[in-house]
Design a protein that fits this description.
The chain is α/β, with parallel strands linked by helices and 292 residues long. It has helices spanning 11-21, 41-54, 108-111, 120-123, 138-148, 166-174, 220-223, 267-287, and strands at residues 2-7, 28-30, 60-62, 66-71, 77-81, 86-94, 98-101, 116-117, 132-135, 155-158, 178-180, 184-190, 193-198, 202-205, 207-210, 213-216, 228-229, 235-236, 240-241, 254-256. It binds flavin-adenine dinucleotide.
Length: 292
């Protein structure tokens, strides 16, 4: 029986694993795929080096996916891994993240991560002052276009046939944002950016920001019956895992940190939350009498 098992291979899991290892907990980390969508090569290198270092502090890192989880009568948890190996643990810390997908428009998928992005805070600086396209339905698209106005005076919002509310249209007009309501047919690479083609026109932009579809990467929290919460501003069908500020979910001894809890977190935020929740988890284990 392990005391604490962390599920996840992103920044939240890494930060949490470092804290719990250095608290002499010998955590097991079911890390899945270690790819992180991080900003610069230096950040990715720092993260990769930390995963290697983790073993020096006594963590056991298992590069598999956790497929199923259940709670035993004793209150402990049983995890089934992709290799069919079964692990038992007194507490779980879920850091399984979310995935983002761009809208289903011809050509967009190929440019995702290079010319098509979802986050201005991650990718806005490099294209400041340039002609920016935003694709997003209704009010969510309008809010993203208004945010983009902070990076560039030249913003075009493609609503793809789904108009925002009247008051937001007024805000867009006042900010000088160009509104295109015709359905978008395709997006393709252009000499200095990308072309957006609607039924009536083709226009070139430096790059594009979209309102993505967001999904939980794993349903382990749901399998455990953890309460989920609706996230108003996102298209996230399952919702986010509800926790208190210490990362405690509605199921005792199941903790969660990272984007599965707060989908708006970036790398630094996920790391910070992983750190905070790991400390709270260690304290809770101590209160429950599990000193090591
Ligand atoms: C296209 C794109 C570009 C981005 N660019 C930036 C950027 O430039 N700067 C920035 O700060 N942020 C960026 N982000 C956001 C950043 O990637 C996230 O904020 C961050 O990775 C969240 O960390 P996390 O640990 O919560 O989740 P994740 O990084 O998503 O990690 C989740 C981990 O859990 C693992 N996992 C899931 N299910 C299981 C399971 N059942 N068993 C085992 N393991 C499992 C996954 O393999 C993964 O390793 C970007 C995101 C995307 C999608």
């Amino acid at each position: 029986m392990h005391t604490i098992t962390i599920v996840g291979g992103g920044p939240a899991a890494l930060a949490a694993s470092l804290v719990l290892s250095r608290s002499c907990r010998k955590p097991v980390v079911i890390c899945g795929d270690l790819t992180v969508e991080a900003p610069e090569v230096s950040a990715r290198e720092r993260i990769a080096a930390s995963w290697t270092k983790l073993k020096d502090f006594g963590a056991e890192v298992i590069p598999e996916r956790a497929i199923a989880v259940s709670q035993l009568e004793s209150g402990a948890f049983s995890l089934r891994l992709s290799s069919e190996r079964i692990l038992r643990s007194r507490a779980l810390l879920l850091c399984t993240g979310i995935t983002e997908k761009p809208p289903q428009i011809e050509g967009i998928h190929e440019l995702w991560g290079t010319l098509v992005h979802s986050c201005l805070y991650c990718h806005g600086w490099e294209v400041q002052g340039e002609p920016l396209a935003v694709i997003g339905h209704g009010d969510r698209g309008a809010h993203l276009a208004i945010r983009a106005r902070g990076w560039s005076h030249d913003v075009t919002l493609y609503t793809d046939g789904a108009q925002p509310s009247a008051s937001l249209i007024t805000d867009l007009t006042n900010l000088g944002i160009n509104l295109q309501s015709a359905p978008v047919l395709s997006v393709d690479k252009a000499p200095t950016g990308l072309n957006v083609t609607t039924k009536s026109s083709t226009a070139e932009h430096r790059c594009m920001f979209v309102v993505p579809t967001v999904r939980q990467q794993s349903n382990l929290a749901e399998q455990l019956g953890c309460r989920m919460r609706h996230v108003e501003e996102l298209d996230l069908a399952e919702g986010a895992v509800a926790t208190d500020t210490a990362g405690q979910t509605s199921v005792r001894m199941v903790f969660a940190a990272g984007t599965l809890v707060d989908p708006t977190l970036r790398v630094a935020g996920a790391e910070g939350q992983g750190n905070i929740v790991a400390i709270a988890t260690n304290e809770e284990l101590m209160r429950a009498g599990f000193l090591y």
